[in-house]
C-alpha cells in the first residue's frame, strides 16, 4: 500500500524475523535494522546472514569493550580523561558496514543505537578512497602518501589491519575492513600487478575459488560461499579500491580550512572566558587546542578529533551530525526491532550527552564545537527515517499512531505452539517451590529462566541454586556484551540449566530449550513488572511445547492482570486456529550457530564489593606474575563496572592501578 510506517505485532516464535526478511527481499532496498542492545543485534545479524547468504549483511555496534567518557566534576575539581578499550574485531565490522554501503546496493546492516552517533561525512569517506587499476600510471611515493592520508600506518614487522608494508617494488596493504590483504606491484611508475593474499599464511587467494557475487538484489536462494563483492572485484578485474582506515577523515583542503575555523573559534571563546574572569579556563583551553592543532597539522589526526568533526564535515553550529543513517540512500528501509524499547532508548541519548559536554566547554576543556559531536536528537532521527517497520510483541501507542493504526498481528506460530500457561503462586516459600520446579524441568532436559528485581537478588539466588547442585549462572548489565552471547549459547548447549537475570531476559532471546519462566516478586509494580515487561518475559517460554510461566505474587496487580488477559487472548486465537486446521504443536529444534566473534571468554570475576579497597591497596610488588595477572583481571572488571555506574573517579583510580601492574609485569 506504499505506506511509510507499519507496525508488525508478532508474538515470540511467530517468525517476525522471517517476515521482515521477506519484506526486505520484496522491497529490495538497502536496509537498516536497529536493535536496542548488542546481544539481540548479534542474534539478528546471524539470522539475516542465514536468510541472505549472498548479500552484504553487516554488524554495526559500539566498538568499545570499556568506555570512560571525558568529563569534569566541578564539585571536586576533577578532570577525567577519555579512556577506552576498542574491540578490533567490531571496529573491522563497523568499517566493513560503511564500505559495503559505499560499494554495494544489496546491504543489510544490523545495528544498535550506535547508528545515531557522529560518524563523519560519508562524502569525505568516499572521496578519500584510493581507486587503482592494473596498468595505470602510479608513482610509489604518491601511493605511500595517499595511504598515509587515509590513516594507513607503515609497519614492516607488525602487519595488521590498517597497515601497509613496502618490500622493493611491492606494497602490501591490509584493508581495515577485510580479512585479506592486497598486494600492489609498482614498476617504472606503473601499477603492474594487483593480487590478494591471506595476511597470516601469505598464500595467494585463487580467483577460481571465488563465486560470482550478484550485486544489487536481495536473494533468499541457496547459499553460495560468502565473499564480499569488493573482494571479488579486486581480484577479477585487477581493480582495487581501498577505503580509509578510520571514519573521521577529511581531504587536505578541508583540513586547512578546518584549522583556520578552529583558530577563529578559539580566539572568540578565549575572549568570552577572559571577559568572565575565567583566566585559568582560558589558559587551559588555549594550551590544549593549540596542541591539538599542531597534531592535526603534522599528522592529520589528534586524540579526540571527533570533537572537531563539525569543522571537517563543514557543518554549522547546531547542525545534526553525520551518522550511519547518512550512508544509506534516501529510499532505504528501516526496521526498528523491539520498538517499544528501542524508540525510547533513541529518544534518551541526546540529553545525557549534552549535559556532560556543556560542563567541559564551560570550564575550558573543550571548544563549543565539542557539543556538536553528539548523537541525533529524536526530531533529527525522525527526519532521517526511511520507510519504517516497527516490530514488537507489545508496540507502544507512539508506533501505532505513526502507522495510523495500521497494525499487522502475527499471532500464529509455524510450529503450532501456543502461548505458555500462566500460574500464580504465593510469594511465601517461593525459592523452595522454585527449586522443585527447576529440578523437574532439568530432569527432562529442559532449561529454566528466572527473573529477579535486583542484581544482588540474582547473584544470591544463583549461589543458593549452585549449593543445591543446579548448573546455574546469572546475566546482568555488568557482564560484557560478547560474554552475554556466550552465556546464552552455554544455556542452549546444556552447560547451564538455569539462567537468572533482571532485565536482560525479555525481548528477542531465541531459546527454544526454555520450558519454564519464573517471575519473582511479580506483584511489585514498576518498570520491571509493567504489563509490557511481563508479556515480554512470559514470551521467553513460548518457544517450547511445554512452556509455562510461574508468577510469584501475593496479589494480582493491574499490570499482572492486563498481561495475563493479553496472553489468554492470544492463546484462545492460537488454540482455535490449531483446531480448525488440524495442527498438532511441534517442538522447535534449532541448531546452534557459530559465534559471531571468536574470542576467549574470561571467567566473570568478583570484586565489585568490599574487596575493592583491598585490591587497590594491595602491594602488587610482592606478588608473583601469575597472581598479578589474576588481580589485574579483577581490577579490570571493577573499572568497567565503576565506569558504567558513572563513578569516574573510582574508575580512574582502578585504571591507574592496572597500569602500575602492567608496568610491574613488563619489568
Task: Give an overview in words.
Belongs to the UvrB family. It comes from candidate division WWE3 bacterium RIFCSPLOWO2_01_FULL_41_9. Residues 629-664 form the UVR domain. The structure is a single chain. By secondary structure, this protein is an alpha/beta fold. The protein has four domains: 5-118 and 313-410, P-loop containing nucleotide triphosphate hydrolases (Rossmann fold), CATH 3.40.50; 130-242, 2-Layer Sandwich (Penicillin-binding protein 1b fold), CATH 3.30.2060.10; 421-581, P-loop containing nucleotide triphosphate hydrolases (Rossmann fold), CATH 3.40.50.300; 611-666, no CATH class. The protein is built from 20 helices and 24 strands. The strands form six sheets. Strands 3-8-2-16-17-1-18 form a seven-stranded parallel β-sheet. Strands 19-24-23-20-22-21 form a six-stranded parallel β-sheet, sandwiched between helices. 39% of the residues are buried.
TL;DR?
This protein is α/β, with parallel strands linked by helices and 667 residues long. It contains 20 helices and 24 strands.
Amino acid at each position: 500500500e506504499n505506506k511509510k510506517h507499519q507496525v508488525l505485532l508478532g508474538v515470540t516464535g511467530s517468525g517476525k524475523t522471517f517476515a521482515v526478511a521477506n519484506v526486505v527481499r520484496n522491497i529490495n532496498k538497502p536496509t537498516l535494522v536497529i536493535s536496542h542492545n548488542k546481544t539481540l543485534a548479534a542474534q539478528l545479524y546471524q539470522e539475516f546472514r542465514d536468510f541472505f547468504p549472498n548479500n552484504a549483511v553487516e554488524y554495526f555496534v559500539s566498538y568499545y569493550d570499556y568506555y570512560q567518557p571525558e568529563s569534569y566534576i566541578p564539585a571536586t575539581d576533577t578532570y577525567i580523561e577519555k579512556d577506552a578499550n576498542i574491540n578490533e574485531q567490531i571496529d573491522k565490522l563497523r568499517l566493513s558496514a560503511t564500505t559495503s554501503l559505499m560499494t554495494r546496493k544489496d546491504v543489510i546492516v544490523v545495528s544498535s543505537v550506535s547508528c545515531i552517533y557522529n560518524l563523519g561525512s560519508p562524502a569525505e569517506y568516499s572521496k578519500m578512497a584510493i581507486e587503482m587499476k592494473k596498468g595505470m600510471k602510479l608513482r610509489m611515493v604518491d601511493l605511500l602518501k595517499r595511504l598515509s592520508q587515509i590513516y594507513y600506518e607503515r609497519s614492516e614487522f607488525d602487519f595488521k589491519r590498517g597497515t601497509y608494508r613496502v618490500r622493493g617494488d611491492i606494497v602490501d596493504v591490509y584493508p581495515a575492513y577485510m580479512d585479506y590483504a592486497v598486494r600492489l606491484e609498482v614498476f617504472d611508475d606503473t601499477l603492474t600487478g594487483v593480487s590478494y593474499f591471506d595476511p597470516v599464511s601469505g598464500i595467494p587467494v585463487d580467483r577460481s575459488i571465488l563465486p560470482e557475487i550478484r550485486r544489487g538484489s536481495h536473494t533468499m536462494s541457496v547459499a553460495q560461499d560468502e565473499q564480499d563483492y569488493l573482494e571479488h572485484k579486486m581480484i577479477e578485474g585487477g581493480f582495487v579500491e581501498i577505503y580509509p582506515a578510520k571514519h573521521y577523515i577529511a581531504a587536505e583542503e578541508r583540513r586547512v580550512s578546518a584549522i583556520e575555523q578552529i583558530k577563529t573559534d578559539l580566539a572568540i571563546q578565549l575572549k568570552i572566558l577572559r571577559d568572565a574572569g575565567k583566566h585559568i579556563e582560558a589558559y587551559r583551553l588555549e594550551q590544549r587546542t593549540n596542541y591539538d592543532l599542531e597534531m592535526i597539522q603534522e599528522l592529520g589526526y589528534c586524540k579526540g578529533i571527533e570533537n572537531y568533526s563539525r569543522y571537517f564535515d563543514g557543518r554549522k553550529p547546531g547542525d545534526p551530525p553525520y551518522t550511519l543513517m547518512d550512508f544509506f540512500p534516501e529510499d532505504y528501509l528501516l526496521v526498528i526491532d523491539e520498538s517499544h524499547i528501542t524508540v525510547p532508548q533513541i529518544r534518551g541519548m541526546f540529553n545525557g550527552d549534552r549535559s556532560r559536554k556543556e560542563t567541559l566547554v564551560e570550564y575550558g576543556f573543550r571548544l563549543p564545537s565539542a557539543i556538536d559531536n553528539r548523537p541525533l536528537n529524536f526530531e533529527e532521527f525522525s527526519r532521517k527515517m526511511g520507510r519504517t517497520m516497527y516490530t514488537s510483541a507489545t508496540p507502544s501507542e507512539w508506533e501505532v499512531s505513526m502507522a495510523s493504526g495500521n497494525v499487522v498481528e502475527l499471532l500464529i506460530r509455524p510450529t503450532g505452539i501456543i502461548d505458555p500457561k500462566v500460574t500464580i503462586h504465593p510469594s511465601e516459600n517461593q525459592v523452595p517451590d522454585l527449586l522443585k520446579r527447576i529440578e523437574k524441568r532439568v530432569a527432562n532436559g529442559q532449561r529454566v529462566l528466572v527473573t529477579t528485581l535486583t542484581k544482588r537478588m540474582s547473584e544470591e539466588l544463583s549461589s543458593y541454586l549452585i549449593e543445591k547442585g543446579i548448573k546455574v549462572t546469572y546475566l546482568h548489565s555488568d557482564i560484557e556484551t560478547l560474554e552475554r552471547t556466550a552465556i546464552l549459547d552455554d544455556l542452549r548447549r546444556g552447560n547451564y540449566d538455569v539462567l537468572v537475570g533482571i532485565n536482560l531476559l525479555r525481548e528477542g532471546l531465541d531459546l527454544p530449550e526454555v520450558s519454564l519462566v519464573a517471575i519473582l516478586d511479580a506483584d511489585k509494580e514498576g518498570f520491571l513488572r509493567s504489563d509490557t515487561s511481563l508479556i515480554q518475559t512470559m514470551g521467553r517460554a513460548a518457544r517450547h511445547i511445554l512452556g509455562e510461566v510461574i508468577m510469584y505474587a501475593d496479589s494480582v496487580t493491574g499490570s499482572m492482570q492486563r498481561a495475563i488477559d493479553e496472553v489468554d487472548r492470544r492463546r484462545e486465537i492460537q488454540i482455535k486456529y490449531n483446531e480448525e486446521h488440524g495442527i498438532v504443536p511441534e517442538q522447535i529444534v534449532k541448531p546452534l550457530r557459530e559465534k559471531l566473534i571468536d574470542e576467549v571468554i574470561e571467567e566473570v570475576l568478583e570484586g565489585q564489593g568490599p574487596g575493592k579497597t583491598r585490591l587497590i591497596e594491595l602491594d602488587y610488588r610482592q606478588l608473583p606474575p601469575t597472581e598479578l595477572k589474576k588481580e589485574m583481571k579483577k581490577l579490570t572488571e571493577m573499572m568497567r563496572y565503576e565506569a558504567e555506574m558513572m563513578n569516574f573517579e573510582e574508575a580512574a583510580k582502578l585504571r591507574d592501578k592496572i597500569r602500575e601492574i602492567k608496568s610491574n609485569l613488563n619489568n
